[in-house]
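Thread: "does anyone have the structure for this chain?"

Original post by V.I.:
We have the sequence but no experimental structure in hand. Need at least a predicted one for the grant figures.
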Amino acid sequence: MKHYPTMFKLRKKEITFLMCIIFFVPAVSSFAQLTEKDIIEIKIYHIDTEEQENTVDDYLEKAYLPALERAAINSTGVLKPIEGDSLYGKKIYVLTPFSSLENFGEIKEILETDQKYLEDGNEYLQAAHDKPPFERMETILLNSFDGMPRLQLSDLVNSPHRVYELRSYEAATENLLTNKVKMFNEGEIDIFERLKFNPVFFGEVLAGSQMPNLMYMTGFVNQESRDAHWKSFGEDPAWAEMSVMEEYQNNVSHIDITMLQPTSYSKL
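Reply from O.Q.:
Generated one for you, tokens below.
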């Protein structure tokens, strides 16, 4: 009988240890999954004049992108609406992948302590109130899909007429957006990859002005190739089967499409 309390204490310790494992391991696993996916920032400069465009271009090329590279962020794309579009000369899109929310959160402090960045970007950073380098600036933050957790640089960098298509799919409710994300992860991304759409990213918007929505980007050697790829997509048997499945009905309420071309200094 004297041994029972000791054995009971040992059992209590063992049970406590096992309970810690049961609850701790899934938590670590969930955190690992979160940090294994890119957080993607889309920064959009709204500009009115050619002078503003040149100032922002100069800042991005000579100060911002080099500073990001010094911070081990090497895949930033800079794109503009294609010529002939109503937005041509009005917006500049900066697409940056961060390895985690923490990585995204610390970049401001990193830039503020980078003396070369401060020197090279001085004209932009110290612009006067009555001569701003842009009219407005907006930021969209996305969490990459499980089906494509990291931004992918395309194989099109040597194609002089390459274009990128940025799409935003809005859903009427948050549950319907979750359903559309599931549709991508469970088959739609596979179709894009099989048909060689050169996908760059797929992400659910965490912060933006059109929520609930998702966004994704694909790339093509030229506009004609883009049109041919979408024709193939519409005729694809796997898409035809998936698009009529009852569980995926009515999960997109609005689509925005923006055709973009990369700047000469873009990494895309």
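V.I.: this helps a lot. Confidence is low (pLDDT under 50) at residues 1-10, 15-34.
O.Q.: and The longest strand covers residues 136-144.
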